[in-house]
Amino acid sequence: MNDMKIIQLLPTVSYGDAVSNYAFEIEKVIKSMELDTEIYAEISEKNVPVKNVSEMHISENDVLIYHMSTGSELNFRIDNFPCRKIMIHHNITPPEFFRPYNHELFALTSYGYTGLEHLNSTFNLCIADSEYNKNQLIEYGYKCNIKVCPVLINFSKYKSVPDISVMKRYSDNFTNIIFVGRIAPNKKHEDIIKTFYFYKKINPKARLILVGSWNGTEIYYERLKKYVETLGIDDVIFTGHVKFSEIISYYRIADVFLCMSRHEGFCVPLLESMFFNVPVIAVNAGAVPETLGNSGILLPDSDPIRTAGIIHKIVTNQNLRRNIVRSQRIRLRDFSYGKTSGILKNLLTNFLKGEYT
Q: Any idea what the Cα angle at residue 16 is, between residues 47 and 245, rounded to 5°?
């Protein structure tokens, strides 16, 4: 296998993106196995250390790991490569969420699902982030071996220095409710805002911080701002795109993490909240219940009045808060870097031995 390379291929790569971060962690695991590896992308952010797909040379001895997360022409070229192939399926946001807000994203995600179906007989092995994603592959006709390996998260990086200005600005006597994730229709920020509206009636000294970029979903973002204005709520903050040090700061000052998302293939911010001992409240949708396990508070629906009451209980009842945080710390062990990287390493080792071909 001396002349073999393991090549990762992504439609897009950018700093801070969960799929891109995962690819870089996979690269570390492959190198720890003393194997040659490279990362290629169709589109990459400036200064990200990957090569363009136009430079990619692949032989029948190589192994291709393809990250499936969006619509791309690559989805219709993968089956032409002469090597063994692995898909890592991150899931694709259903197009209907974007229909009212961005025709291009609607078309792109629709194209993604067309590509997902096209590829159902292409891979020797598929690795899904979650059972939820695995079941989607089965639904789309995938007959190959499908294994589950949670996202690899290097939690040591979260111990880095936070942004002091953010810490000072929001470390006051207000209750800070946060959500971290791009401003996108599937995340249902309007339900978070509605819940905050009712919680404000219980606790006027409360603040809602929505951390994430609205690039590509500007119409949705403008509607959210208008909704806040219509409800007459103060203390709702949209941060836009932020640096990693700022993200750390928002977790550090948070009292509650509130997730009303209706579609998640894994939801990394849930684990980030667990790491920072922030109690999680989340709606039962997508892979959220699977990621939470028996920790946090899982909501049956998005009822804003009930959810506001739950937030109040967590904020005012220290025993309840401690119990939730304890359950989350136990759940977080299942996603330790040693455990998840070990699962991936075993999958790759067995694949190279020919177990899944």
A: 105
What per-residue string of b and e applies to 305-340 under the rule 16 or more CB within 10 Å gives b?
eebbebbbebbeeeeebeebbebbeebbeebeeeeb
Place of tokens 């911010």: 269
Are the beta carbons of 63 and 85 closer than 8 angstroms?
A: yes
pTM, entire model? 0.94
pLDDT tens, 91-133? 999 999 999 999 999 999 999 999 999 999 999 999 999 999 9
Contacts for 253 with CB less than 8 Å, ≥ 6 apart = 166, 167, 170, 171, 176
Among candidates 27, 21, 32, 36, which has minimal Cα distance to 8? 27
Beta pairing partners, 86: 65, 125
Token pair for 287: 């892979």
How far separated are the first and last CA of the chain, in Å rounded? 16
Supply the pLDDT for residue 2. 58
Is residue 47 helix, strand or coil? coil
Q: Please list, in sequence order, all residues whose beta carbon lies within 8 angstroms of the beta carbon of residue 92, skipping any fewer than 6 positions away.
A: 68, 69, 70, 71, 109, 112, 113, 116
Phi then psi for residue 338, to 5 deg, are: -60, -40
